[in-house]
């Protein structure tokens, strides 16, 4: 009998150790789970749901305190039904009274077996589920109370015990670290974005053209990008357009982008040179006086021609522009791309040309808009065409905003978009042809449009001139 009693005691002790190990493993998994989030709303919700899982709670909430530390400015809940959530939405945020307020004013762990019997209890608002038990723990960030974690109603019907309290206290400590990490993440990301935007130009008055641009940083923090755009009005109703992407995601890429943009700006005021010659000169200059990384870019010039406009452009390994012409399908201006800057400055650079009707929009963008590891470039380009067609009727700034909001990429890279709309015809015309070289005054049918562009979008045999 004595041996059996001793074995039973050992068995109970082992079970307790196994339960403790399970709690510890669950806590470690919870900490890892919370620390993987990079957005503050996701972190806060994960803290609530993870705490519920650890102690088997039916309901959970996290109240975030305002600057005064006296009132709640956010209240994240979990476990409520849609009906309960809708009913409580009408009552607004809890005012920090009752047992919730008790924890705000006395931030020590709070364990209650009967909420209605607690001296601080103030009852429940209409539509609130009836709760009896509560476990509350304050969450501190850098030594200050950030908010309070509330759990209610264990699923097994038992009140919360000291083991539950210890686990939630440990989780609250890890939660404070996770919150501080994600707030630092936000500050770094905001600083990187602000720095990048300071390097980008404000679009000047491009009349008679209209233009809109947008830049979006990469999703990850500290990933300064090398994407940029520029537009420069020249004499005689001519505008120069630039879109580019310096390889890399760091301060070097951002600094190289700034120096490349400034050099190119200086070269653009020499209107007599075709885009290919300007890019060739830029490449030689960069090669001679810098160690800038490889850079892709498109340089374009739009100038008056007859009833519309003529687009001249040259690319250095960049993605093609997208042309959205009135009553025509949106179409990419595929052409010989040339080699990126920084590869071989002696390589000849092709020039391309295309007639652009009045009221058309030419969209220049970087590959961050379309790159996705699970999709081919062709698939992403098709998706972008669909987006551009869908939103083409929007005002130009809203149009580029929509493309940036719904882009087909995975967000791993920064992106830039610059859209330029050609103005109304300089002289009245009854018909507008996409290709000025077509002698027949009738518009070509839609299925011939691709052929017309391809016939004219071809390398200039003179190369870099």
Explain the layout of strands and helices.
Layout (H helix, E strand, L loop, with lengths): L1 H34 L4 H16 L1 E9 L6 E7 L3 H8 L8 H8 L4 E3 L21 E8 L2 E11 L7 H38 L10 E7 L10 E8 L3 E9 L4 H18 L6 H15 L5 E11 L2 E9 L5 E3 L6 E2 L19 E5 L4 E5 L11 H15 L4 H10 L9 E7 L24 H11 L9
Antiparallel strand pairs: 1-2, 1-5, 3-4, 4-5, 6-15, 7-8, 8-9, 9-10, 10-13, 11-12, 11-14, 14-15
Overview of the structural elements:
This protein is of the alpha+beta class. The protein is 37% helix and 22% strand. The chain is built from 10 helices and 15 strands. A 5-stranded antiparallel β-sheet has the order 2-1-5-4-3, sandwiched between helices. It has a 5-stranded antiparallel β-sheet with strand order 6-15-14-11-12, covered by helices on one side. A hairpin with a 6-residue loop joins strand 1 and strand 2. Helix 2 packs antiparallel against helix 5 and helix 6 packs across helix 7. The radius of gyration is 31 Å and the shape is elongated. The relative contact order is 0.09. The C terminus is likely disordered.
